[in-house]
Amino acid sequence: MDLTNTRILISHTTIAQVMGSTIVTAQLASCLKRKGAEVLVFASTFEGSLKEMFERDDIPVITDEEADLDLYSFDYVWVNSQVLPFAFVRALDGFNAASEQEQEERLPNLPRFIFNHMGAMETVCDEYPYIPLLEESIASLEVYVSPEARDAMQPFYDETLNEGVPQTIFPNPAPSEFAFDRPVPAKGARSQSVLCVSGHMPAEVGEALELLREQGLSVHHIGPGLPLADGIVDNTSMGADPVAAGIQHRPRQDGSVLHALCHTGLRLRLSGRFRLFGCREHRARSLCELLGSRGREDDGQRDRRGAFGQL
Q1: What is the DSSP string of 102-132?
Q2: For the segment 109-143, what is each residue's pLDDT rounded down to a tens digit?
Q3: Could you give the CA distance from residue 42 to residue 49 in angstroms, rounded to a whole number?
Q4: Residue 60 pLDDT > 90, yes or no?
């Protein structure tokens, strides 16, 4: 997939300490850049041990909430934790206030908004659709780390307004550099070590690891407090046999979550629900692009082909 001449903004809460969501953001940005896209990351902070992951691949990161960003210059906006730059909020508010004729003229140049939800834990409530009617109004696609996370979040949408928004699973796929050749174990050989990579390890997984220790296996856990990002990328130094990566905590069945605007680096000033004229057509057309069909083009200056769905 060639994303040459495609501009993509990825929003995130904070780039500082080691968090699974930040790892995914860095790996996604690097993958898109390798496919030819021009990628820009927006976050509230840019410091600490994970800063190196972005700098290593020359991924630009901006932290100015009032940055002068032109919404209409981007093809896609990948949104984590419902974070948007103020410039985008004002541009969308301006679209909402425009006449239907003006909206028709602007609509083909609006980017496709993809909202990513990387967990369903009650303690990480910014992963939920916590801003009422935001995704229902502007989303071209909603993606979730697992079917369980998707199901847990449905009660927090307006069912009628959100029924036309496509939803899919984006299970935090491992980068290609995680794959490496190693000898095939002899018949009957037993694993000697196991590596678990999880920032939110459920109790039952901890119990399973303890059982493995009791059976004589060497057990390693990479999680909160890891000082260097390289420790997550390179698991070969530990000589681990199986690797259990990205374990997600199961959501509670009642799907309850704190109804509060968590600190995500931004407090969005929304003056009302966006009534995107022709939004169903906009969503349907964007889904075709995501699945790899020919996308929209404007006066030959920017190629709108390519698909996140084939990453």
Answers
A1: HHHHHGGGSPEEEEEE----TT-GGGS--ST
A2: 999 999 999 888 777 778 899 999 999 999 999 99
A3: 17
A4: yes
Long-range contacts of 120-124 (CB under 8 A, 24+ apart): 120/145, 120/146, 120/148, 120/149, 120/152, 120/153, 120/248, 120/249, 120/250, 120/251, 121/200, 121/249, 121/251, 122/251, 122/252, 122/256, 122/257, 122/258, 124/200
Amino acid sitting at position 246: G
Pick the range with the lowest mean pLDDT from 74-88, 130-144, 216-230, 289-303: 289-303
Distance CA 265, CA 85 (A): 10
C-alpha–C-alpha distance, residues 272 and 92, integer Å? 10
Question: For residues 93 and 273, what is the distance between their CA atoms, to the nearest angstrom?
Answer: 9
